[in-house]
Amino acid sequence: MMFLCCWALVAFIPVTFSTNAGVQVKLTEKGLEYGRQIGMASLQQKLKSIKIPDQSGTEKVHPIGKVKYSLSSMNIVKVELPKSAVGLVAGSGVTLSISNAFISLHGNWRVKYLRIIKDSGSFDLNVNDLTISTTISVKSDATGRPEVSSSSCSATVGSTHIKFHGGASWLYNLFKSFIDKALRKEMEKQLCPLVANGVSDMNHYLKTLNVLAQVDEYAEIEYSMVSSPTISNVSIDLSLKGEFYNIRKHVEPPFSPAAFSLPAQVSNMLYIGVSAFTTNSAAFVYNNAGALSLYITDDMIPKSSPFRLNTRTFGVFVPEIAKRFPGLMMKMLVKTAKDPIITFEPNNVTIRAVGMVTAYAIQPNATLTPLFILNVETSISAQVFITEMRLAGSLTLNKMNMTLETSYVGEFQVKSLDSIFQFVLKVIVIPRVNAELAKGYPLPTIGKMKMVNAQLQVLKDYVLIGTDVVFAG
Description:
Layout: H1 2-8, E1 23-28, H2 29-47, E2 55-61, E3 65-80, E4 83-89, E5 93-113, E6 117-140, E7 146-165, H3 169-174, H4 176-201, H5 203-206, E8 212-214, E9 219-222, E10 230-231, E11 235-240, E12 243-246, E13 270-275, H6 276-288, E14 293-296, H7 311-317, H8 319-324, E15 330-336, E16 341-345, E17 348-362, E18 368-387, E19 390-407, H9 418-437, E20 441-442, E21 449-459, E22 462-471
Antiparallel strand pairs: 1-11, 1-13, 2-3, 3-5, 4-5, 5-6, 6-7, 8-9, 9-12, 10-11, 13-22, 14-15, 15-17, 16-17, 17-18, 18-19, 19-20, 21-22
Helix pairs in contact: 1-2, 2-4
């Protein structure tokens, strides 16, 4: 029932503002069918908790006269829900219907007649052709998360059959039609409240929707809805904010999400589209948090490399460095000068990053003396992949262009340092970035949802994930 309710909620969530989404989610009929299967197992258990109160009364039975009777200790023995269906109503929501359901219960009877004669025994009641139809509404709770309730429900019992055992069972059979009617009404009265309780129980699971998910020490991502869901006959389309924020202070980036929509694919249960806006909002957050900077020292360079981070090595290309600072180790600061820009094209993710490299000589007293500052423009290719319920990536350097911003050691040919800085980026900087990107960031999820046979495509301006899902536990 949990997964079904999670899907049903989207048709009724009130939205107070509208803007373009950073992330789009599509729930298909195949996904709803999976939710129905889970929901029926949960609802079946819920119906087993039906409690029929004790029944008593007096009936005139020919030729005995007045008979006092009571039915007690009635418990559900079996529940079967052989036929059920969920449906999408365009522009409206999700419906759930159950038909041909069967419930059996067992109880005790007691009777008194002719003033002094008493008898007792047991009975079995079968409830046949039971039907339930319900719709589910959702509102926001105080925390902005969805809260579900049953907005309408109808339940009918097609027929009942009661059989008495032991004692003067023949006597009960004389007026069982009266008892059938009473028990049928009581059963119908119980069904919709139980369905409503089952729907309300889902609020515990809905509170696990990661509306605000922490990524790391710098960032979190928001997945609140930015507009009302679009309900068609084949899917429910959700528009989520999909924006990274600094974990300490939410600041909007100097750009907005562009409108985009998912393709008309319905072969998977779930589709998630992550736009370039989402990834660029991450670049904005990390750059402004100062996370896109790295000090490089000689101990970070493989020992097998002939290149060392010292004035002797750099003196080969810039003689003034070795002349003025002989025998000193060096340190470099690599950092972005502006927000990197991520672009999605079909089957291609590229990043344009503009940075600065400041080289220092490390004096014997550990103070740093600046040697030069370079402007660096890079073009980087990215591979995007899924790891569990997270979107991750890895980078590869395509090309690099450097210009001299400032020199404290006189003029020199920047081109001569190309091989050194290509090495620094490929061997030191990018592997460290990739180690962080491999951790990924959380995708929108509810509870212990897992992807099955997920497929990822890079399309124009967004990444599309198509997947089936399962719920664990």
